[in-house]
Amino acid sequence: APPAGWTDHYVYANGIRIHYWRAPNPGKPVMVFAHGSSDDGLCWTNFAREFASDYDLYLVDARGHGLTDPPKPGDPADVQAEDLAAFIRELKLSRPVVVGHSMGSAAAAWFAAKYPDVPRAVVLEDPWLGGRRTAPDGPPPEERIRRMIERNNMTLEQLAAECMKNSPKWGESECAYWAPSKRRHHPATALISIGARPPMSELFPRITAPTLILKADAPEETRKESAATAALLAKGKLVHITGAGHNVRR
Prior knowledge:
The model has no long low-confidence stretch (mean pLDDT 95). The chain is an alpha/beta fold and 250 residues long. 32% of the residues lie in helices and 18% in strands. The protein has eight helices and eight strands; from the N terminus they run E-E-E-H-E-H-E-H-E-H-H-H-H-E-H-E. Helix 2 packs across helix 3 (103-114) and helix 5 crosses helix 6 (172-184). It has helices at 45-48, 79-90, 103-114, 141-152, 156-166, 172-184, 200-203, 220-230; strands at residues 7-13, 16-23, 30-34, 56-60, 97-101, 121-125, 211-215, 236-240. The longest helix is centred in the C-terminal third of the chain and has 13 residues, at 172-184. It has an eight-stranded mixed sheet with strand order 1-2-4-3-5-6-7-8.
C-alpha cells in the first residue's frame, strides 16, 4: 500500500486520462516524478517519501503504465514530454522540480527543452547520453508483447520473487512496489518508437533549468563521453554513482 495520507487521482490532459499519486504538502515546492519503462508512479515510493516533508509530490503514471490510458496509433515521438507538459498545465503546478528515470528521463529532458521556463529544476536518473537511437533495444514488438502479457498474468507473489532473485540489493519493499507495475504495464507500449527522439546533445543546450544527472557506474571512457554531453547544459552537474546500475536510486 502507498504511505498513509497519499492519495490517487486522475486528470484529463493531452487527450488521455492520466493517473497520478500525490503526497500532499500544500504550500511547499512541487516535485513531479516520471518513472521508467514498465514501472509506474508508485515505483518511486521509497525514494519519494524522503522528500515528502519538504515538497508537494506528484507521482505520475506514464501513458500505457499504471492506471493511465494506453498509447494510441500515431502518437508522436514527443507524446510523453507533452503528457508531462499538459499534466503540469492542467493542475496549474507552479515551477515544479521534475525528476525522471530512464524513459522518464527522456520525457523530462525533452519537456524541459521545449518549455524551459516551466521547471524549477530537473533531475535525470541514468538517462541515455549517447547519440540518436534508431530502434528500440531488445526483441521485436511481437516478442515484447508476448513477454508483457506473460507478466500481466503472473501473480504479485511470483513477480516479487522474480524481482528479489534478479535484483536482491533492491530489498523486499522495493520489489513489492515493482511487482504490481508489471501487471498493469500495457502491451501497446511495445509499439512506441524511440527512433525519432532527439539525442540529449540536441536537447541539453535548450534546457535552462538547473539539471542534475545521476548516472550508473561506468568505465572511464564512457564517463568522459557522458561528461562531454552534460557540459552542454547551461546549469548542469553530472555525478556517476560508483557501484550503481541503471536503477541508480534502487
